[in-house]
Description:
Layout: E1 15-23, H1 28-48, E2 55-61, H2 65-68, E3 84-85, E4 88-89, E5 97-103, H3 106-120, E6 124-133, H4 154-160, E7 174-183, H5 185-189, H6 193-200, H7 220-224, E8 235-236, E9 239-243, E10 246-255, H8 258-268, E11 285-295, H9 298-310
Antiparallel strand pairs: 1-5, 1-6, 2-5, 2-11, 3-4, 7-10, 7-11, 8-10, 9-10
Helix pairs in contact: 1-3, 1-9
Amino acid sequence: MAREQLGICTEANLHSDYLLFNAVEGSESILRYKLARLPQVIDRLAGHFSEALLTSVVAVGSNYWATLYPDAMPLGLAPFPDTQAEDIDLAPVPIDIFIQLRSDRRDVNFIACQQVKQLLGGYAELQEHIQGFRYLDGRSLTGFIDMPANPRGKAKRDAALINHTHQPVFAAGSYLYLQCVNLLLNTWQLLSLTEQEDIMGMDKVSGQPVAADRQLADSHFALLQSATGVSQNILLQHMPFTRGSVHGEMQLTYSADPDVLLQQLLRRFGLMADNASYDQLLNYSTIEFSAAFFVPSISFLELAVKRVSSQLPFE
């Protein structure tokens, strides 16, 4: 049975680090080996600092996958959509390798980041390092409970991880959309409580949806849901960050089905045929960058080293 990367369906942590790399040209063979080793390195640290609950995610950019693993392509893996809704720029960028580290100890995250950088040093160039943190009781910087409709328990795995019967080679893998979103916090804080709740479609204290007669068709909550229950087929994993005067959120959306990711994105940006408008929360944020990835299982990472080096086909 394929072994998934534990950072996909992990419970919430206090701290996170997001490392974005571009590969050095011609380093594919050594990077395959190093990416297969990386979960082992993190697992060893997690065992040493067991109370920290350290996990990792290793993801390969849609633009780089065919270069790194030319003999096996996940169905439907595609670049992040390069489109605009109204005046909202999705800012898609090509990122070769994405590493996420999460734990309940800042110092353990620091050690893990250092080891990742040393492991990939000389073969992948670090483009960005963003640190996230848990805010209050799991809220975004808007003050609202973040991701209240997220699937729980076994439903998380069903939503995020590919079933063996659908894609045997990529079982326990996941498709990932990553967005770095900057919140216009000063503008948001000028709104009244009622205005904020109307935009979010949720009660600010409880996180429950507002009454049906008050729920706007273009509220954040309404556009995260759908008549077909698409929201139950995605797993959100967001965390706030701050850098000087810039405050925002790293938004990670996982799914076992790339079409679900695309539908959810288009619905939020008002690009579906049945949309009334785009998500009104977008009026209070700017997107710094977006990227699409595939998160292979640990089993695939290990198998790829053996298969590619011996020129054997994937089964």
